[in-house]
Amino acid sequence: MIRSEILTEIAPILRDQLVVCNIGIPSQELHAIDDQPSNFYMLGTMGLASSIGLGLALAQPKPVIVIDGDGSVLTNLGTLPTIGNNAPANYILMIIDNGSYGSTGDQPTYTGKKTCLAGMARAAGCDNVVEVRDLDTGAALQQALAAQQATVLVVKCDSGNAKMPVITMDPVEIRARFMQAVARR
Amino acid sequence: MNIDKRIADDLVANDISFVTTVPCKQLAGVIEEIDQRDDIFHIPANKEDEGMGLCAGAWMGGKRPAIIMQNTAIGVTINTLATLIQYYRMPLPMLISYRGELREPVACQVEMALHTKALLAQLNIPTYHFHQQSDVAEFDTILKYTFMCNKPVAILTDATFWGGYGEQ
Hints:
Strand content of chain A: 15-25%
Order of helices and strands of chain A: HEHEHEHHEEEHEHEH
CATH class of chain A: Alpha Beta
Helix content of chain A: 40-55%
Mean pLDDT of chain A: 97
CATH superfamily of chain B: Thiamin diphosphate (ThDP)-binding fold, Pyr/PP domains
CATH architecture of chain B: 3-Layer(aba) Sandwich
Structural class of chain A: alpha/beta
Largest interface: A-B, 34 and 32 residues
Oligomer: heterodimer
Distance between the termini of chain B: 20 Å
CATH topology of chain A: Rossmann fold
Helix content of chain B: 40-55%
Strand order of the largest sheet of chain A: 2-1-3-4-8-7
Shape of chain B: globular
Largest sheet of chain A: 6 strands, parallel
């Protein structure tokens, strides 16, 4: 499965949760598949989805699901120790690990070679790290939500992108409706 | 006057309860002070752009954030300031140690000091420079201004403000 197929499958789980979604094609795919006010789409700033989601989870009690990518985690590796030492029980970091920089033309990342993000997360102090195949994403995500403990979920899947339109919504509108969703829930 | 305590008091008085830091020796006292405050959740970051991501999330979750960092971090965070904090219009007080100014013992620090104000000006970031200890009196007003306008705001604090490095 490629990322967009996974997002389509888990959309019914995501739509009731606060979601922070990674820059580029992941946000475009989620926006096209199931746009929700409770989705925070990153339009720039590669690498910070996991950090934004962590700040959000620490600031309020509702579950937060971060949809991140292997390339973006690699560009902000300092996030893993911060998560490992601070993540509250309502934090789920789901890394869609397709071994490539999808938004820029599927150039390979090092996770498709020798580098193991799950191992790096464990070494950084993350206690609950789960690696699954694409087909098992929905079940693993539901399990993580039910467990009510900080979870890093690494989803190994195929490289590839769906053709989706660029998000043209104003960033202040994305942020304002997301904050309303946070306050409402 | 204990400026570390004064700064922490002003943060608390302005309901700032989420502070991320990347250390600088000039900031050691204020970081220690913040770490001891029950009203402030202190989360050290490994890099300043990561810290700004944490602050963005905390603010959307209903907490008022602040970041404490060195001026060299301006070089690290330009993209994050432009495409996250400013683009989504978020408030972020940045208490910044202004290394490379008068009384600086490390020559390399001067190199980023030369660019600091120019970069902040290029980014249209409101910038205040604390040089005398009495300048701390404006900190409270600057915090109020930051959360009024929802912008990143820089407070540069130089060696003279912090009382030098002790060796001079």
